[in-house]
Amino acid sequence: MNGGQSSAFDVDALLDDGDTRIVVCCGSGGVGKTTMAAALALRAAERGRHAVVITVDPARRLAQSLGLTELDNTPRPVPTATDGGGSLHAMMLDMKRTFDETVEAHADPERAAQILGNPFYQSLSSSFSGTQEYMAMEKLGQLRRSGEWDLIVVDTPPSRSALDFLDAPKRLGRFLDGRLIRFLSAPARGGALRLLGAGIGLVTGVITKVLGAQLLRDVQSFVGAFDAVFGGFQERADQTYRLLQARGTAFVVVAVPENDALREASYFVERLSAERMPLAGLVLNRTQRVLAPGLSAERGTAAAETLEESGDHPLAAAALRLHAERVRRRHRELRLRDSFAAAHPGIGMVEVPARPEDVHDLAALREIGRALGDGRAPG
């Protein structure tokens, strides 16, 4: 199995490097991205960085683990001892509020009020596919431009693909500039389509019956007002995309030692490479710890059977069977890990052992941070 032996991912070196300004945690759902993002930000703060962590986790676990009653769209200070002079703030993305702020930043007050009050905009900003990912990147850009923090840690959205946020600006742009929206808004916009005269009127009449007159008017009003600010949206999206590719950004892929999760991790690694996004390394979360590595599964099982046959020491027999199962699971993990390492040579890894209970406070986050900071190649 050593043909695919992985190298170390030195997390502390990454966090201590003042040139590292953005860390993006990505991975499939349920692998612990939110916890890793919080642990990385806490460890960085306690090593002297002024860090902020942004999450989009609707379960609000980050607030609980950081000892806060709630998180919102404004970074909140986390009360934690930082002997190194650092600080930690945390926030949870409010998708609609961020969209509203972006509109207000791009439009004059009158036009902004017209957009914000439009029913079609209100639906778009709350539920359109890709809006959450777009706004996560918009918020990242806002935090970076503020200059208030020297490290931003991002917990990516829980979408079908944890890299959907790379496509979100283009997807939202295609929708807002798409044929259907342009066609529906043609009467309000004027231009070439009006030259079609009765033809466009007939088709619009059919669409009005399908969609309803009010919705059509809302779409027309929205596009008419939004046209003047859309260019600013696209420009900012392009700036943030370039920021993700720039030196100073580091992507951390989070996975668990399971087939599906590591298959997704392979996809993330390949996609990041294709997009020229800087990958720092892989965190293999919730791995098994074997307390007596010299005792094989076979010997442990045999010893348990001997004790069970004699009827003596039932607790010892149960412990031996538990040990044997952990050894078997660890061997499966090593095979999966080494297969991933063989497919992606040169990508550093660090393992975080499974915990007996969920993370719910700063002490647990520090413990995870210490595991991350060991910087040892998993063995």
TrEMBL record:
In Swiss-Prot or TrEMBL terms, this protein is called ArsA family ATPase
Q: Which Gene3D superfamilies match?
A: P-loop containing nucleotide triphosphate hydrolases (3.40.50.300)
User: Lineage of the source organism?
Assistant: Bacteria, Bacillati, Actinomycetota, Actinomycetes, Streptosporangiales
Q: Which PANTHER family match?
A: ANION TRANSPORTER ATPASE-RELATED (PTHR10803:SF26), ARSENICAL PUMP-DRIVING ATPASE ARSENITE-TRANSLOCATING ATPASE (PTHR10803)
Q: Which InterPro entries match?
A: ArsA/GET3_ATPase-like, ATPase_ArsA/GET3, P-loop_NTPase
Which segments does the entry list as coiled coil? none
Recorded GO terms, molecular function?
ATP binding; ATP hydrolysis activity
Q: Which residues form the ArsA/GET3 Anion-transporting ATPase-like domain?
A: 20-286
